Amino acid sequence: MMAEATVMQFPARIEWFWQTRDEPPKWYRYSDVENILIEEAFQAKQDQVILDTVQIDFVHQVQICSDNNNNPQSVPVKREVKTTRDKILREDRFIVNPIHPDMPFCHASTDSIFLVATKQQISNMCFKNTVEIVAEGIAQEGKKLGRQREAQWMANELLKVKNGSEEEIWRCCARLYSMESFLYKKLNEAMRLVDDKKQRHIWQQQISTLGPFAVLLDRITVMFERPAGGFRGIIYRGANLSKDQITKFKEIATSNNPYRSFQAFTSCSRNRTKAESFGNTLFIITQPVHKLSTNNDISPYSDYDEEEELLSPAYRFRIRNVEFNVKKKKHYIYLDG
């Protein structure tokens, strides 16, 4: 029987929160991996659990951290049991621009520059060794960011499936990518820079650590290259664009070459209403029925099932039209995939 990456199964969705010291105070949710680590320690009846930047004291129900002078500071924590699963979109996933801040789009290409560079480095490795390299890369990146425990948990999840099928490994990658953590943020930050010559050294530094993970995550498109591989219809993504960025989209839409690409992985939703609630711009992306899949439904592997569609790197599109909706006070950018 193949190994599977698993998370402790609890009777309901558990969420842990910490309270700010503001007036009035606010409650913030821990990241997905932190929630798992906290709940595992709680279920094991431990007195405390140490995370990357704080520790949780279960006896006194507080989070403890140190200020800049190494003086301990404590704030309340709480545990909530969710008996129903709210259908939500995470603003952080949908408000971050799918493009470089200074360059609204990358030139259209059939291959991801970031993935090609990574594959050149790992071309002679067997698949099993690639999974080990992926796990080690995540651990290294987490260490640089001060997120060692979070990164090691994700690395361990991958190592559990290294002897599994390619589909099992991809499912694990999709689940880790969908989780709220540093992983998807740092990966996409690097991939959005590939068309910027001034930032070349930045994204190239990420090839050895996060590049192998990107290759495995993208592998499903190759494994299941068929028209039914992804959703066919209209998907949506909100964004915050500057006036200059919107103007550039308008200019390209009316040019002789309206084709461009998103170089990073790009989360989208089939739910227009929720996607439209973020930012000043809504991307309206039409997926043609005759085209091979360049998007994948990752909702079965995610706790956020409204974020269904993940566009593959180097997703090529035509900018069809840009319009401003006076009633919604929002720009609509129509893209044909």
UniProtKB/TrEMBL annotation:
InterPro entries found in the cross-reference section: ART, WWE_dom, WWE_dom_sf
Catalytic activity: L-arginyl-[protein] + NAD(+) = N(omega)-(ADP-D-ribosyl)-L-arginyl-[protein] + nicotinamide + H(+)
Pfam families, A to Z: ART, WWE
Gene Ontology MF, one: nucleotidyltransferase activity
UniProt EC number: 2.4.2.31
All copies of domain WWE, residue ranges: 1-83
Coiled coil: none
Keyword Glycoprotein: no
Enzyme class, broadest EC rank: transferase
Entry keywords, A to Z: Glycosyltransferase, NAD, NADP, Nucleotidyltransferase, Transferase
Cell membrane listed as a keyword: no
Lineage: superkingdom: Eukaryota
Recorded family membership: Belongs to the Arg-specific ADP-ribosyltransferase family.
Name by which UniProt lists this protein: NAD(P)(+)--arginine ADP-ribosyltransferase
Organism of origin: Adineta steineri
